[in-house]
Write a structure and sequence with these properties.
The two termini are 32 Å apart. The protein contains seven helices and five strands; from the N terminus they run ααααβααββββα. The chain has two domains: 60 residues, Arc Repressor Mutant, subunit A (Orthogonal Bundle); 86 residues, Glutaredoxin. The protein is elongated, with a radius of gyration of 18 Å. The protein is α+β, with helices and mostly antiparallel strands and 165 residues long. The longest helix is centred in the C-terminal third of the chain and has 17 residues. Strands 2-3-1-4-5 form a five-stranded mixed sheet, with helices on one face. Helices cover 50% and strands 12% of the residues. Helix 1 packs antiparallel against helix 2.
């Protein structure tokens, strides 16, 4: 049974962006991104729904979702911590920061804390070399010139933010 569905507003949004593309295959990545924004990951159920919605074979959708690393194929924490360890960040202590976060949260690369709050991921490049080391949170917010003290403040802020809601 398929329980994933887009709202009427989301369907309307898809219809609007559909005008920019020649066919539904071209629309697939923006629609998968919408699912991930809504659910935090892309499930088999949501892929089947998109297949029906766009009239695209499930095998094609699975191929696209598995090819692009930006799509989460399993649930992630509320806060996805992506620590850049490319050259500039590495030279400015990114590996040490990654190790510190890993130990503090008790998780390794691509793992999620048991409470579902944090997922930690080592990434190759976030394109912020001048402000290294850098961490991106939830694919949008950058935290730059990081130190252990700044990381502690951020982690506490994220935990506190959860409590306030």
């Amino acid at each position: 049974m398929n329980n994933f569905k887009f709202s009427k507003e989301e369907i309307k949004h898809i219809e609007n962006i559909k005008k920019r593309y020649l066919d539904n295959n071209s629309l697939l990545i923006p629609v998968l991104w919408m699912i991930q924004e809504k659910e935090g990951w892309i499930s088999e159920e949501s892929m089947a729904y998109v297949g029906e919605l766009l009239n695209i074979p499930l095998s094609t959708i699975k191929g696209v979702a598995s090819f692009y690393t930006m799509f989460n194929k399993k649930p992630k924490g509320k806060y996805q911590l992506q620590v850049c360890t490319n050259v500039s960040c590495m030279l400015r202590g990114a590996y040490e920061l990654f190790e510190y976060i890993s130990n503090k949260l008790g998780i390794k690369n691509n793992e999620t804390t048991p409470d579902g709050i944090f997922t930690l991921e080592e990434v190759e490049c976030l394109g912020s070399c001048a402000t290294a080391p850098v961490m991106q949170v939830n694919n949008k917010d950058y935290f730059e010139n990081l130190t252990i003290e700044k990381v502690d403040e951020l982690l506490e802020k994220f935990k506190t933010h959860l409590v306030e809601k």
